[in-house]
């Protein structure tokens, strides 16, 4: 008899637990049945948008300052009346650069905060996990902070738009500049073991006949000594890096310890000079002299945008150190504001996508935005920047990249108008 | 399921088997109905909790009944998730060419194939670990399973099919047309999660209450005595491990269905230890307690996040990610001090404490 009782107990407990769970659920209840509603996140005087960013964890040191800069720019715009009379509310969620957490926080943004759009979700591994989800729910997925080719699939993901110049473009421009400055260059590649590294490598292969060595690392790695040893052994003269800031610093620092000083050609995602100096310390900073990178944003002290962003940074961002991330974050903000203004007096999710695809938006980069119905990337042109006497600034070289290779072009920056607040 | 443990269990449980299935069916229906009361986000949380529940149920059976401590159940879930994602993607791709992609077959075939893939992957890993578990005891088994969790990111980075930190994506399972007007995607996924979880947990209930459960308890209490009674402790331990691994694998498949992605970051050390916390807080050996524990580890981080959001931004950021870990520690201590048998005892009261103490309070 006793066995019968004990047999029944687990069910009893499961039942009790289920009832408990249901009671708790009912307390928080609301219906799940799909219903047609107004435009989510848009009221008469606000527009709520959200993002996922690494505010903690390994990637935080390199990227946490981006969303702060974007938020500061929105505050600046809000103080000047917002866009079409609406204040922009920017909800930043921390995902720690962990794809699993991204899944959760993005659902929170869409279902709990009911955001109008996701803007500048950061990272390839993190964002690719929510791509389908956002597509199914028809949420505009604007200005993804990554240069992966994934974001440029208008057929499959009509609401997703990239922000960065894609990695292939960057890789091709970096390698072309190496060949233009030194025809005998031995070009090698060190890349992250994901879309980032692969894209850079693809770009390099587009313009260089031969890639002498291609090494990869994983963000979980503690050092890159083995990779750099192999590259030094192979006699590389120009190293193209598809690395994030921390690993760029690690690569340059490790090579310097080996007594090896090749030319470094680094993707914009990992070439922010102040951040690199912070990683390497003042003693290691001289190793960064001559570091070549490309950028598509006006990150140069000579630009009007730079000057405006510096002012906004002082006033609305507590004077945080001004880095490439600041330019990046504020440019994201400007681009969203411009798109929102173009989406009309009563913006809808459809109208903002239509505004982007119209091809009329200019952005604030080194060349006008290239968004169109069949191109969801922002920039196909990048400009070369070199560190000289501890200052990272543009040189005259710029490249436009297409499938046939990288062509030298003259940069044409969008002029600053109306104090950087897009008019509706 | 391992024949060593299930086949003897079915004969004595023959009469209550119908009752067991009836109860399982009723509870499943109740849970399915419950999804109508929830908004989409909470249905998503429910689906996540269901996936975790499957794994914790397997774990609590393993620790509570046979006394084998596994710190690596997250890896078994990951194995299930990868198995699901890789198989389902293959099948979906194959169907896409054949024109059968539309309709119910196009919907269900990848899902079912994926579940089989999840069972095969987690089962295979479970057999390997079970063989080791039959020979290792206590801290050594815990150490081995812990090492697996730590090795997961490297393994994912080394094996090309697992695609490193980025992980592999699983095909999206859309709402069937017949239901599209009635329920949202999240609710549909919650349904799938509940169904898969009941498929994982019901056999565990049968195992626990049947002869296999008795053998596990016997091995746990005294291996020599069990051996004298004609029980092979090695087989029982290995069998328990496989059963537990299969449940965890289904849990991983649930999470893959819900999130459409499997990456090593989702199955880290922290998550693996959380599964143990869920089992301990719920009450070792108690499947109902596992459900409570699973809900707790799903909701607590979210509640903490809501709470830190209300704090000043600077303080909030510093607490984010750290506070929940501290809080879980506090919860374990408080529960152990007040209710050593876990939260399951809270529901049942103290009356049965004595009769089950030998199995659950070690």
From TrEMBL, chain A:
Gene3D superfamilies with a match to the protein in the record: 3.40.50.2300
Domain Leucine-binding protein positions: 46-389
Name of the protein this chain belongs to: ABC transporter substrate-binding protein
InterPro entries: Leu-bd, Peripla_BP_I
Signal sequence segment: 1-37
Lineage: superkingdom: Bacteria
Compositionally biased intervals (Polar residues): 405-415
UniProtKB/TrEMBL annotation, chain B:
Top-level lineage group: Bacteria
Transmembrane segments: 20-38, 44-63, 70-87, 107-133, 140-168, 188-207, 238-259, 271-304, 325-347
One Gene Ontology CC term in the entry: plasma membrane
Location (main, coarse): membrane
Cross-referenced InterPro entries: ABC_transp_permease, LivM-like
A GO molecular function held by the record: branched-chain amino acid transmembrane transporter activity
Topology in the lipid bilayer: Multi-pass membrane protein
Signal sequence region: none
Entry keyword set: Cell membrane, Membrane, Transmembrane, Transmembrane helix
Record's subcellular location: Cell membrane
Protein name per the record: Branched-chain amino acid ABC transporter permease
Species assigned in the record: Promicromonospora citrea
Gene that encodes the chain: livM
């Amino acid at each position: 008899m006793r066995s019968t009782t004990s047999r029944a107990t687990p069910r009893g407990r499961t039942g009790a637990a289920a009832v408990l769970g249901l009671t708790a659920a009912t307390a928080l209840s609301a219906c799940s049945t799909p219903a047609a509603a107004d435009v989510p996140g848009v009221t008469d005087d606000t527009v709520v948008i959200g993002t996922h960013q690494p505010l903690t964890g390994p990637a935080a040191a390199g990227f946490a300052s981006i969303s702060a800069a974007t938020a500061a720019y929105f505050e600046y715009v809000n103080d000047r009346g917002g866009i079409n009379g609406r204040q922009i509310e920017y909800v930043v969620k921390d995902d720690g650069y962990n794809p699993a957490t991204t899944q959760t926080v993005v659902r929170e943004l869409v279902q709990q905060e009911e955001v109008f759009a996701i803007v500048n979700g950061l990272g390839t591994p993190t964002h690719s996990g929510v791509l389908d989800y956002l597509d199914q729910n028809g949420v505009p997925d604007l200005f993804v902070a990554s240069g992966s080719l994934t974001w440029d699939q208008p057929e499959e993901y009509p609401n997703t738009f990239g922000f960065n110049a894609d990695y292939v473009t960057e890789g091709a421009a970096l390698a072309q500049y190496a060949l233009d400055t030194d025809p005998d260059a031995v070009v090698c590649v060190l890349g992250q073991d994901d879309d980032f590294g692969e894209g850079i490598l693809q770009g390099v292969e587009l313009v260089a006949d031969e890639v002498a060595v291609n090494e990869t690392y994983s963000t979980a790695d503690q050092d890159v000594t083995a990779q750099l040893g192999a590259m030094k052994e192979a006699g590389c003269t120009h190293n193209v890096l598809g690395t994030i800031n921390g690993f760029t610093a690690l690569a340059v620092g490790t090579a310097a310890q080996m007594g090896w000083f090749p030319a470094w050609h680094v993707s914009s995602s990992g070439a922010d000079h102040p951040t690199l100096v912070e990683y390497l310390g003042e003693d290691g900073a001289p190793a960064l002299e001559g570091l070549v990178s490309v950028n598509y944003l006006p990150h140069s002290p000579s630009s009007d945008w730079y000057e405006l962003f510096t002012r906004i940074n002082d006033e609305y961002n507590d004077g945080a150190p001004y880095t490439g991330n600041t330019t990046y974050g504020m440019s994201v903000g400007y681009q969203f504001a411009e798109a929102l203004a173009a989406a009309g007096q009563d913006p809808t999710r459809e109208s903002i996508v239509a505004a982007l695809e119209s091809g009329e938006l200019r952005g604030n980069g080194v060349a006008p935005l290239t968004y169109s119905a069949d191109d969801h990337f922002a920039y196909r042109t990048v400009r070369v920047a070199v560190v000289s006497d501890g200052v990272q600034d543009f040189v005259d070289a710029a490249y436009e990249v297409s499938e046939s290779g990288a062509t030298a072009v003259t940069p044409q920056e969008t002029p600053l108008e109306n104090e950087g607040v897009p008019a509706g | 399921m391992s024949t060593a443990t299930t086949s003897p269990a079915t004969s004595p449980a023959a009469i209550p088997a119908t009752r067991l299935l009836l109860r399982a069916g009723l509870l499943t229906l109740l849970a399915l109905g419950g999804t109508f009361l929830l908004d989409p986000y909470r249905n998503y949380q429910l689906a996540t909790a269901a996936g975790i529940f499957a794994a914790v149920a397997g774990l609590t059976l393993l620790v509570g009944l046979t006394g084998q401590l596994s710190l690596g159940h997250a890896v078994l879930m990951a194995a299930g998730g990868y198995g699901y994602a890789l198989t389902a993607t293959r099948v979906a791709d194959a169907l896409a060419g054949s024109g059968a992609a539309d309709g119910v077959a196009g919907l269900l075939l990848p899902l079912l194939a994926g579940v089989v893939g999840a069972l095969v992957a987690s089962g295979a890993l479970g057999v390997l670990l079970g063989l080791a578990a039959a020979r290792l005891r206590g801290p050594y088994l815990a150490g081995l399973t812990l090492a697996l969790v730590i090795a997961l990111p490297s393994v994912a980075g080394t094996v090309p099919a697992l695609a490193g930190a980025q992980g592999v994506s699983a095909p999206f399972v859309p709402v069937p047309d017949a239901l599209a007007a009635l329920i949202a995607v999240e609710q549909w996924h919650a349904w799938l999660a509940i169904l898969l979880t009941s498929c994982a947990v019901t056999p565990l209930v049968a195992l626990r209450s049947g002869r296999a459960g008795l053998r596990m308890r016997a091995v746990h209490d005294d291996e020599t005595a069990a051996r004298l009674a004609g029980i092979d402790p090695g087989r029982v331990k290995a069998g328990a491990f496989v059963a537990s691994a299969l449940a965890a694998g289904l849990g991983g498949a649930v999470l893959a269905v819900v999130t459409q992605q499997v990456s090593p970051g989702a199955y880290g050390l922290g998550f693996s230890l959380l599964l143990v916390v869920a089992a301990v807080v719920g009450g070792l050996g108690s499947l109902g307690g596992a459900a409570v524990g699973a809900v707790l580890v799903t909701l607590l981080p979210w509640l903490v996040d809501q709470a830190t959001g209300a704090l000043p931004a600077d303080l909030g950021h510093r607490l984010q990610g750290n506070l929940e870990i501290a809080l879980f520690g506090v919860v374990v201590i408080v529960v152990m001090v007040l209710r050593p048998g876990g939260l399951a005892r809270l529901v049942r009261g103290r009356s049965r404490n004595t009769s089950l103490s030998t199995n659950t309070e070690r």
